[in-house]
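Incident log, structure service

09:12 report received: a user says their structure output differs between two submissions of the same chain.
09:20 pulled the input from the user's history:
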Amino acid sequence: MSTPLPPVIGLAGASGVGKSSVARAIIKSNHAGFALLPSNTAGYQMLDRLLAHHCDEQEAEFWLSDWRERPCPYLGGRTVREALQTLLTEWGRDQMGAMLWRLAWQAQADRLAASGLVIVNASVRFEDEAQAVRDRGGLVFLVTRAGMAPASAHRCENQVIRSDARVAVEGPNGVPAAARQILEICGAS
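09:34 re-ran on a clean worker, output below:
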């Protein structure tokens, strides 16, 4: 008999290592009851609302996913990644207060967890976000990929996060293998 999964699984690591892909693989596993809720959800929602003033829903979705590394004409020629970094860090953390995004995430996570879902946070960028995962009985995993450097020198890409375990995305089956390893460490059978 397997032990219950932790209520929150947090994924930390540099952009591009596969955190979101690993999170999707965890959610698609045969284990029911997962909800994807990255720390940066509120920031994405704010950018989505801004983009809605400039383009249709389908184009906005492309900017927020596939095109997030391209210069965006609706963001002054900056990329969505740059917009998120400054929105979440310089504006949110520095101007409004370090707890702004964490409190928004915690409120959503607590509502989802109350319904019995296991939260998968694919965007743990700062130690206080990792602590919010642990405070809810969760585990934080550092996701790595050989040869991957942070996408930028921005401080949100270069934080040292204390992790409970490290998993590597390696080779063509690296994402599903990393997801299986995380689930095994969490006690899923």
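09:41 both user submissions now match this output. Likely a transient worker issue. Closing.
09:42 reviewer note: The chain has a mean pLDDT of 90. Helices lie at 19-28, 41-52, 57-64, 80-96, 100-114, 127-135, 174-185.
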